[in-house]
Amino acid sequence: MAEKWLAGVDLGGTTTKIAFITLEGDIVDKWEIPTDNSNEGQLITINIAKSIDEKLLIHGKSKDSLIGIGMGAPGPVNYETGVILNAVNLGWKDHFPLQASLEVATSLPAVIENDANCAALGEMWKGAGNNAQDVVFVTLGTGVGGGVIANGNIVQGVNGAAGEIGHITAIPFGGSPCNCGKTGCLETIASATGIVRLANDELSKEEAAGELAEKRAANGKISAKDVFDSARNGDSIAQKVLDSVSFHLGFALAAIANTTNPENIVLGGGVSKAGHILLEAVNEYFRKFAFSSVRESTKLALATLGNDAGVLGAAWLVKNKMNP
């Protein structure tokens, strides 16, 4: 009997990542296509289906080789109906029937999940989660997202909003405004945008001197990477910002861990590329605020899958729900 594959899709506003993946989680082929959001996104699922058919032809495989297709989509999902409630930058109207549209276009059974949750499942299955059944995944990028996995399944909540780690209130009084409408969210501190804001605030307070100040003077701006690079080199302002970010992130992760007691907490996203200087600082505060038995059982780690996490997590959904 021919080997069966899983199809995983990570849908983004500008590009869509697609992969064929074995039941063991090995990527057979992966590629990207542009996301065409014109005409209210009518061609998105059609283009995905065409691309999959073309790749199957190249591999000499039929549609029967695929068990099903999983997709991570940017937005909250109704898990019973496969309807995406709202999706920014995709052209769809609210309450778009994504699962039905994908099934019609591909002639495959489909399962839909939020994209951050798919990345969490990917890291659990084949990445830094080490196939543990209880994992918290945090994406530190332009914003802060994540997913909570308990007993091998994503914690979805009553309306799919569980795991909104970026909107934990890190500063209860005051704090900077967040895009969600609240103030003081973790996202306003631990995201790349938040880190740059904190650094600029510090640089504007006094006669700022040092490497980070010199970078801003030379380039007219700074990045989160500049902050971490300068902190490594002993810049006092950068180290102060790193300490503030690590304090709030460590505090929030300890609160999550005290509630869920995961085996692993995985940090991903562009900010996590700062590496061990961030991980060690966050871990120090995490251990300070975590309950003793949680402190001993929960490990913090950096994500390992990069851009492959989403397609792997989407494929895991198919394996978990459809594999006979």
If you compute it from the alpha carbons, what radius of gyration comes out, rounded to the nearest whole angstrom? Answer: 21 Å
What would CATH call the class of the largest domain? Answer: Alpha Beta
Globally, the shape reads: globular
Counted beta strands: 12
What count of structural domains?
2
> Please, how many helices?
11
Strand order, main sheet: write it out: 3-2-1-4-7
The CATH topology of the largest domain: Nucleotidyltransferase, domain 5
Q: What is the CATH superfamily label of the largest domain?
A: ATPase, nucleotide binding domain
What's the mean pLDDT score? 93
Specify the biggest β-sheet: 5 strands, mixed
The end-to-end distance, rounded to whole angstroms, is 14 Å
Query: How much of the polypeptide forms β-strand, as a percent range?
Result: 15-25%
Q: Secondary-structure element order, as H and E? A: EEEHEEEHEHEEEHHHHHEHHEH
Give start-end ranges of low-pLDDT stretches.
none
What features would you describe in this structure?
- The protein has two domains: 5-114, ATPase, nucleotide binding domain (Nucleotidyltransferase, domain 5), CATH 3.30.420.40; 128-304, ATPase, nucleotide binding domain (Nucleotidyltransferase, domain 5).
- The protein has eleven helices and twelve strands.
- The mean pLDDT is 93.
- The strands form three sheets. It has a five-stranded mixed beta sheet, sandwiched between helices. Strands 10-9-8-11-12 form a five-stranded mixed beta sheet, with helices on both faces. Strands 5-6 form a two-stranded antiparallel ribbon.
- With 324 residues, the chain is an alpha/beta fold.
- Helix content is 40%, strand content 20%.
